[in-house]
Specification:
The protein has helices at 13-34, 124-132, 141-148, 155-170, 180-192, 434-437, 446-469, and strands at 2-3, 41-44, 53-69, 72-85, 90-95, 107-111, 175-177, 203-206, 209-212, 217-225, 230-233, 247-249, 258-259, 264-268, 276-286, 293-296, 303-308, 311-321, 328-335, 340-347, 353-357, 360-364, 369-375, 381-387, 393-399. The chain is an alpha+beta fold. β21 (353-357) and β22 form a beta hairpin. α1 runs antiparallel to α7, α2 runs antiparallel to α4 and α3 (141-148) crosses α5. The longest helix has 24 residues, at 446-469. It is elongated, with a radius of gyration of 24 Å.
């Protein structure tokens, strides 16, 4: 038996989302207070997606733009950000969330459009066209100036004009560049933009979690990458000479250390292995495709890739095995179209895998895969654990950031190049240190917040039951 944090289908989509948001918030807090079992592994919404992980370094080539709003005009910096890639490499990015500030030294993960505001934006493909047809992809500024019908363009003017054009499609906002040359470029790019498809990820493993019995090859896990080749790092125990080590092999059982796009790899688990889990990683060096989104778990504004050096990319996959019973494998992916975290549960055991979602019970037959959407509140941290048989436990943490903040302009909005305080779901008041440190000193308040949220969640649930019975 395992449990999750979501609601069954109930009449009234708005009411159901309200119940889900209240209950998930409450149980997320409870999960932080109680802690996870030792067997639990943390997983955020992007784990398993793979790709590049980078730390933002701020605006490097920029100028000034003006947002025209109902409350007046607001000047903001606009241009190219630089990000340093974990393991080596540099990225250049533009922002696609004009009113959301960047957080100092925020860490970003390469993310599918579906896990960001681009996933629900019909003009996302036009943003990619702008990236492909402007600075820095087009570094012949004289040629770019000629197309935009301006006398000349500096790097700063080209960056500002490109960012402004992107914002008009990504945020649907009234914004213009202060510099006339940059504004002409923005107008040209906006007018000529055409829809392009989302680029493929630099590196992913599919699926990111598998399960089965000892003595079997668990998988396959398929490698998808634009790199010429990638290196496989097996589970730690597999580097030893012990006979019970889990190996990474191909479909013929031959140990694998190097893979290419389309390669299929397996966890080779010894027949006498005790129930357990293992993780492998795949790493490559490549240029990340222009147009890939980068999202942060620290509520820092979403970025979209404009240029990449040769950079390190990586992805992981896990395996779970047991001699009998239900043997689950879990992975997660953010679904901004539905405002949910999709939990995919796989059962490669020889018994049904049964779990409850509030008052609804679900059963995954041996060999079956089921995806369970967990509705989550926007821009709030989530933290919960799903448990299964034989001590299985997996923890999911992250932030669902699916909408831009252009419609929520307030007097407290901070410049795009500066960090701003944010409110985590586990605290009743903002922590001014959170933006810079990525952590909160409000631990003593968590218990009280948990109690309050649980009460709210229970009240909403009772209200919905009453509506069903009436």
């Amino acid at each position: 038996m395992f449990s999750s944090l979501t609601v069954p289908s109930l009449p009234g989509r708005g009411a159901a989302r309200l119940a889900a948001a209240a209950l998930v918030s409450a149980l997320a807090v409870a999960g932080v207070v109680n802690g996870a079992a030792p067997a639990a592994a943390a997983q955020d919404g992007s784990r398993g997606q793979g790709g590049a992980t980078a730390t933002i370094g701020g605006l490097k080539t920029h100028g000034t733009a003006v947002i025209h709003g109902d409350d007046g005009d607001q000047e903001v910096p606009a241009g190219l950000f630089e990000m340093s890639v974990e393991g080596g490499g540099m990225l250049q990015t533009y922002c696609v969330d004009i009113q959301n500030p960047t957080q100092k030294d925020a860490k970003y993960q390469e993310t599918p459009w579906s896990g960001t505001s681009l996933g629900t934006n019909k003009d996302a493909g036009r943003v990619r066209w702008i990236l492909q047809n402007s600075y820095p992809q087009v570094n012949d500024l004289a040629a770019l100036a000629k197309k935009a019908d301006v006398r000349a363009l500096t790097e700063e003017e080209a960056a500002v004009g490109t960012q402004v054009a992107i914002w008009r499609y990504s945020d649907d906002t009234d914004v213009e560049a202060v510099d006339p040359q940059a504004e002409r470029l923005a107008d040209y790019l906006e007018k000529h933009a055409r829809a392009l498809a989302e680029p493929e990820a630099s590196l992913t493993l599919d699926p990111p979690a598998v399960s089965g019995h000892p003595g079997e090859r668990l998988g396959p896990v398929t490698v998808h990458t634009n790199a010429d080749g990638a290196t496989v790092t097996p589970p730690v125990a597999a580097t030893a000479t012990a006979d019970d080590a889990v190996r990474v092999v191909d479909k013929k059982g031959i140990p694998v250390t190097e893979v290419t796009d389309g390669s299929q790899i397996f966890f080779d688990v010894p027949e006498d292995a005790e129930p357990g889990t293992a993780e492998l990683s795949v790493q490559a060096s490549t240029t990340v495709p222009v147009g890939r989104a980068f999202a942060s778990e620290s509520r820092s504004q979403t970025q979209i890739l404009a240029g990449s050096s040769e950079s390190t990319v990586a992805a992981t996959a896990t395996a779970t095995w047991a001699a009998g019973g239900a043997i689950p494998a879990l992975s997660a992916e953010k679904d901004c179209a539905e405002g949910a975290l999709d939990i995919t549960a796989l059962n490669k055991g020889d018994e049904p895998f049964t779990f409850e979602l509030l008052d609804a019970e679900y059963t995954i037959a041996p060999g079956e895969t089921r995806t369970v959407p967990v509705p989550l509140p926007e821009d709030r941290a989530y933290d919960f654990t799903i448990r299964g048989p034989a001590g299985f436990a997996q923890r999911f943490t992250g932030v669902l950031d699916c909408r831009t903040r252009s419609a929520a302009l307030t007097d407290t909005t901070h410049p795009l190049s500066e960090p701003a305080p944010t409110t985590p779901v586990t605290t009743p008041t903002p922590d001014p240190n959170l933006a810079e440190t990525g952590s909160s000193n409000a631990t003593p308040l968590i218990g009280g917040a948990a109690i309050g949220l649980v009460v709210i969640g229970g009240a909403v649930l009772l209200l919905l039951r009453g509506k069903q019975e009436s």
